[in-house]
Amino acid sequence: MFLLVFSILIFAAIALGAYAAYVDSVTTRSPVAMRLRELRSQRTGGAVSYGDRPPLLLQLVAQLGGFMPARDGRDALRTGLIRAGYRRREAVLALLGSKVVLAVGLPILWLLFAYSTGQPGGRVFFGIILGAVFGFYLPTMFIAMRQSTRHDEVLTSLPDALDLLVVCVEAGLGIAAALQRVAVEMRIASPVLAGELVLVNQEMQTGVSRTDALRNLAERTGVDEVYSLVAMLIQTDRLGTSVGQALRAHADSMRTKRRQRAEQLARKATVKLAFPLVLLIFPALLLVLLGPAAIQLMRALTAS
User: Fold this and answer.
1) Which site in 127, 141, 155, 162 is 20 to 30 Å from 5, CA atoms measured?
2) Which of 3.30.160, 1.10.3470, 1.20.81, 3.40.50 would CATH assign to domain 150-268?
């Protein structure tokens, strides 16, 4: 029975790989695809863009992802991947393909290990189910961790970026030039936020309106503070009020919120320390303090 399951999984993996290689070869020879790549390279001046041809391994994984029945949820997946920092058009298919590869590959590895070590049948079946479930959700957990990391970095560095933006605007620069200057200054402190600001400036240079570019910034980051900043900038642009004063007031509120978040985390630290204190430190202390007394008590009871 296990050999039959193992053979089916091996056949499925080989068939998926062969299909992906075939589709990749057909796409490579397609004159339409080649012409589109030439037009993209001419439009970008030969620079690397998000629409350039990805590596072969990424293409294979993306083709494997095409087997996943998730067409209706592609927009939500793409939004999540963009917020995690993956903007290539193949990112959604690559994510789904990695789910397929891991959901099939981990059970195969477990079967090989179980066959070589002679594991019992119940443990082998449980390992197959666990490996398939874990392999399917492992890419999702990785993307969630990336989103959380980028979210925290943007949230932490946003007040400093706003202070620099206030200085640039009050010095006489426009919003586009100020964003470009802030992106240059924030490259070391926060590469994520600097990259997002560079994208905003590039969108405005290519003809996208300032309102749409700022809204795209908020969608890409998914940070509530960025949403409020974008809403403030759009409202200021429509009403014609002073951008410098509005940015200064917003920067003050952002610094206050950052200080409040730090104080909240400091208060939570005592609660988080309860687990290691009660389960790790206190038992060791009790063993050291009461251990000799317990030994003496046992000797006294034994002697009597």
Assistant:
1) 141
2) 1.20.81
